[in-house]
Amino acid sequence: MQIADNHVVTLHYTVKTQDGDIIDESQSTEPLAFIQGSNFMIAGLEDALYGKQKSEKFEITVEPEQAYGHRQDALVQAVPASMFEGMDIEVGMSFRATTDQGEQSVIIIDKTDEHVTVDGNHPLSSLTLTFDVSIEDVREASAEELEHGHVHGAGGHDH
Ligand SMILES: [Zn+2]
């Protein structure tokens, strides 16, 4: 079965920077399972998966435009420290915040008595990434999985 929209793809991956640093890999845990065409995967990798089959292995290098985008200075904001009153915050902490762009993950990059500076850029923004991919399984998504928008069973939701 060739990968197409609404197929459940299960794969192992290793993702590296251009310097060869391994950012993440799935081999030491569970393979990743997702519904093709649901925008779960970064665009560059999802595009490369179409037409591939179980047991195929490939490597692909993805530019930031097709991965996590470019850093945007506008996503770095200083907010009044009073907004964090009573919270024990430190530089390096990340949390979910509601911003003009919707809900996103932000990381605290600086704090003074008056201001806390948060950065909403994805940690992998502006990076060209190389993925080593091994396709473990391809199957049709069930009607229930399509309705929920996520995979059930191994590598997916258990409910
Ligand atoms: Zn579900």
TrEMBL record:
PANTHER family referenced in this protein's UniProt entry, alphabetically: FKBP-TYPE PEPTIDYL-PROLYL CIS-TRANS ISOMERASE SLYD
Keywords per UniProt: Chaperone, Cytoplasm, Isomerase, Rotamase
GO cellular component: cytoplasm
Organism taxonomic ancestry: Bacteria, Pseudomonadati, Pseudomonadota, Gammaproteobacteria, Alteromonadales
Name by which UniProt lists this protein: Peptidyl-prolyl cis-trans isomerase
Signal peptide (residue range): none
GO molecular function annotations of the record: peptidyl-prolyl cis-trans isomerase activity
Source organism: Glaciecola punicea ACAM 611
Subcellular location, record wording: Cytoplasm
Any GO BP: protein refolding
Stated family: Belongs to the FKBP-type PPIase family.
Function summary: Also involved in hydrogenase metallocenter assembly, probably by participating in the nickel insertion step. This function in hydrogenase biosynthesis requires chaperone activity and the presence of the metal-binding domain, but not PPIase activity.
